[in-house]
């Protein structure tokens, strides 16, 4: 039977042998892992180099892009500055144009007022030059039978209006246009009466007779107004139609074109035909 000392010795030797074996296994494992570590280290170094290259490449590309962007931005800035200058110029031009238009509008308004005033003066002068002119409508063409127009019209006026003597006429003629066909209305006679009192006497006779006839045909005798005045007076035609034959209503047109209406409530003067129409409708209704 072995002794206790011998047992301890054997245990110690076993442990020593185990440690030796462990060291040998570790050395063997380290030796076997060296290629993997080397490969990993090599890969790490290569990845670092690639990363560095990528960084440098990106830095270069970013710098290039920055230069391009700066160049584009500078170009855009130049364009914007040019547009700003253009807009400022346009703004100044528009302001100047607006001021000019305002002045022109005032000038045009002034000229329009002057034109209106001069037009009215021209119409007035034309009316004054015709104040002793009369027109005769409805005289068939050719009835003169070779007589002078002035002599023919004087005899016509004396016969139709039953004048005491032949009126003195300065001139007389038919309307200055081509002779119409037989089926068309005849041209009017235009005559200028020499004396003012004769002119007034003729117009009184015309007003006092409801119907005028010559050679078996109805005729009309009226003052020779300027065409602008005739149009203005004609605008009251529908109003006069309403007022005609209304009991207690008297009306007439004053020169150049003012409608005077006298009725039970007083007297009204109208220069606007539309206003006169509204008044006639409200006061007297329409003729049916």
Automatic annotation (TrEMBL):
Residues 101-128 form a coiled coil. InterPro entries: L1_C, Transposase_22. Residues 14-32 have a biased composition (Low complexity). Keywords: Coiled coil. Residues 1-32 are annotated as: Disordered. Transmembrane segments: none annotated. This is L1 transposable element RRM domain-containing protein. It comes from Sinocyclocheilus grahami (Dianchi golden-line fish).
């Amino acid at each position: 039977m072995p002794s206790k000392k011998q047992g301890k010795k054997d245990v110690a030797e076993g442990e020593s042998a185990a440690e030796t074996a462990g060291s040998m296994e570790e050395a063997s494992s380290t030796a076997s892992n060296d290629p993997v570590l080397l490969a990993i280290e090599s890969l790490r170094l290569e990845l670092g180099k690639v990363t560095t290259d990528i960084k440098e490449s990106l830095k270069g590309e970013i710098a290039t892009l920055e230069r391009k962007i700066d160049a584009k931005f500078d170009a855009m800035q130049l364009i914007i500055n040019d547009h700003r200058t253009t807009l400022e110029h346009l703004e100044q031009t528009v302001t100047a144009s607006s001021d000019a238009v305002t002045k022109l509008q005032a000038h045009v308004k002034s000229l329009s007022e002057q034109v209106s005033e001069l037009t009215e003066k021209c119409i007035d002068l034309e009316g004054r030059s015709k104040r002793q002119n009369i027109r005769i409508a409805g005289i068939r063409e050719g009835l003169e039978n070779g007589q002078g127009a002035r002599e023919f019209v004087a005899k016509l006026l004396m016969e139709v209006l039953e004048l005491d003597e032949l009126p003195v006429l300065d001139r007389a003629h038919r309307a200055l246009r081509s002779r119409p066909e037989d089926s068309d209305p005849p041209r009017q006679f235009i005559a200028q009466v020499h004396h003012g009192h004769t002119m007034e006497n003729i117009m009184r006779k015309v007003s006092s007779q409801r119907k005028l006839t010559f050679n078996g045909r109805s005729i009309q005798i009226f003052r020779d107004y300027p065409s602008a005045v005739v149009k203005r007076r004609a605008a009251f035609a529908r109003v006069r139609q309403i007022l005609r034959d209304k009991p207690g209503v008297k009306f007439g047109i004053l020169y150049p074109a003012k409608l005077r209406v006298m009725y039970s409530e007083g007297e009204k003067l109208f220069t606007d035909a539309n206003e006169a129409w509204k008044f006639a409708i409200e006061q007297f209704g329409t003729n049916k």
